[in-house]
Amino acid sequence: MASDAAKSTESTHRTSGEPIITVRNASVRFDMDKGTSKVLNDVSIDINRGETLGVVGESGSGKSMFADALLDAVVDPGILTGEITYYPEDGEPIDVLNLRPWELRELRWEKISMVFQGAMSAFNPTMSIGEHFEETLNAHGWDEDEGIERARQLFVDLHLDPDRMLSSFPHELSGGQKQRALIALSLILEPEVLVMDEPTAALDLLMQRSILNLLYDIKDKYDLTLVFISHDLPIVSGFADRMAVLYAFEFVEVGEATEILGNAAHPYTRALLKSTPNLEISLDEMRPIEGESPDPVSHPAGCSYHPRCPLSDRRCRDEDPRYQPVTDDHEVRCHYWEEADEAVPLAFGGEDR
Ligand SMILES: Nc1ncnc2c1ncn2[C@@H]1O[C@H](COP(=O)(O)OP(=O)(O)OP(=O)(O)O)[C@@H](O)[C@H]1O
After folding, report:
1. Ligand 1 pocket, 294 CB below 6 A?
2. Radius of gyration over every alpha carbon of the chain, rounded to an integer in angstroms
3. Among 178, 183, 185, 280, whose Cα sits 20 to 30 Å from the Cα of 337?
4. Residue 351 pLDDT greater than 50, yes or no
5. Is 54 in contact with 101 (CB distance < 8 Å)?
6. CA 159 remoteness from chain centre
7. Do the bridges between strand 330-332 and strand 324-327 make them parallel or antiparallel, or are there none, so unpaired?
8. Whose CA is nearest to atom 20 of ligand 1?
9. Can you give the residue ranges of the ABC transporter domain (predicted)?
10. Tens digit of each residue's pLDDT (9 = 90 or more) over 130-189
11. 22 forms bridges with which residues in the sheet?
């Protein structure tokens, strides 16, 4: 649609960094009997080499679709359109959505690796952890001995005992150990980008934090760019460089993590900060976001957040807001973002902290 294309070209969230992946006008739709379900709506963003990008939003906002899109891994019958370009450290840019099947398979493990949502149960219960590593190395034609040495080092870096891990079966490991084993497996073919879709959601808060801290520690050693997908804004913003907030399948706010945590400009982002349980906010201060997120088959006209927004008026109902700069590296799609701090005050973080 011409109007969609015009809208998304308003901003690609460029920053001063060097992009490793660029996403332009990425959309995912499912053609269903009740109509077309648009579950990623014309999303554009640059992901910079070496950064940690956090992508956050409520359940069903399109986070997994965004992660899948980066690897052209949207499941059938989903239709992914747009342009996704990967810029290897050495070599020509790669047009991700136009690769042959074998090129895509190589890209997925050796360039951009992904820990999928719910992947902890993806370990084959009849195979030891070591056999999972061997299988992956062999499938990609990598030297097994060298690969297992690399796995051992990864285990050490992730605070795990290599001998025990390699010989264990999945059921012998705790959730946190399994999760770290999965991260090690996803790094075994030396990818440049690691995409993690809710990798710690099944773990308790303290375990989530300790795994995030470990990832933070190994990121530089392995020259990684991290894309971290989560519903938990406070936990991600504590460790990401930049955050992109998804609402109703579109980015509504993108900016440096400190800005998003301390100076959130979108009423939705602010509501999300108040609604997520975390260690700094008491249960009394938590407020669920009222109302429902939009049905992907019938997006509301105007701003997609207007039915739930305390600031909305006729303009919000009629006119889809454009991106507006809050600072050089912080953009928001809201007509009334300058009033958001009063309309949705934060009891923690931000200006009140
Ligand atoms: N196979 C499918 N067919 C049709 N719609 C789908 C399909 N898979 C997902 N969707 C829809 O796409 C939308 C976005 O889903 P997605 O999994 O990206 O959300 P999410 O933000 O990752 O949510 P969660 O945090 O619950 O995983 C949802 O409305 C979902 O119902």
Report:
1. no
2. 21
3. 280
4. no
5. no
6. 25
7. antiparallel
8. 60
9. 23-273
10. 999 999 999 999 999 999 999 999 999 999 999 999 999 999 998 888 889 999 999 999
11. 46, 85
Spatial distance between the Cα atoms of 96 and 74, rounded to a whole number of angstroms: 12
Burial of 130 per CB tally in 10 Å (0-12, 13-18, 19+) = middle
Q: Which of 311, 125, 111 is nearest to 194 (CA)?
A: 111
Q: Which two tokens stand for residue 270?
A: 């602010």
Q: Residue 328 pLDDT more than 60?
A: yes
Q: What does the block give as tokens for 104?
A: 């895509």
Q: At 148, give phi and psi (nearest 5°).
A: -70, -35
Angle between helices 144-157 and 129-139 (to 10 degrees): 130
**CB-based contact 71:112 (threshold 8 Å):** yes
Strand partners, 251: 246
- Rounded Cα distance between 68 and 108, Å, is 11
| Residues forming a β-bridge with 264 | none
Matching residue, tokens 């050490």: 156
Contact 270, 256 (CB under 8 A): no
Amino acid (one-letter) located at 293: S
Is the shortest distance between the CB of 229 and ligand 1 below 6 Å? no
Angle between helices 175-186 and 129-139 (to 10 degrees): 20
Longest distance between any two alpha carbons in the chain, whole Å: 65
Distance 246 CA to ligand 1 centre (A): 13
What is the distance in A from the centroid of ligand 1 to the CA of 299? 15
Ligand 1 contacts CB of residue 65 (under 6 A): yes
29 in contact with ligand 1, CB cutoff 6 A: no
Whole-number Å distance, alpha carbon 250 to ligand 1 midpoint, is: 13
Domain spans, the chain: 2-111+191-352
Give the range among 8-22, 95-109, 325-339 with minimum mean pLDDT: 8-22
Residues found in the chain: 353
147-164 burial, b at 16+ Cβ within 10 Å, e below that, comes to bbebbbebbebbebebee
d(CA 351, CA 341): 9
Topology (CATH) of 2-111+191-352: Rossmann fold (3.40.50)
Give the bridge partners for 37, in sequence order: 30
Tokens of 111: 């360039």
Q: Cα(first)–Cα(last) distance of the chain, in Å?
A: 44
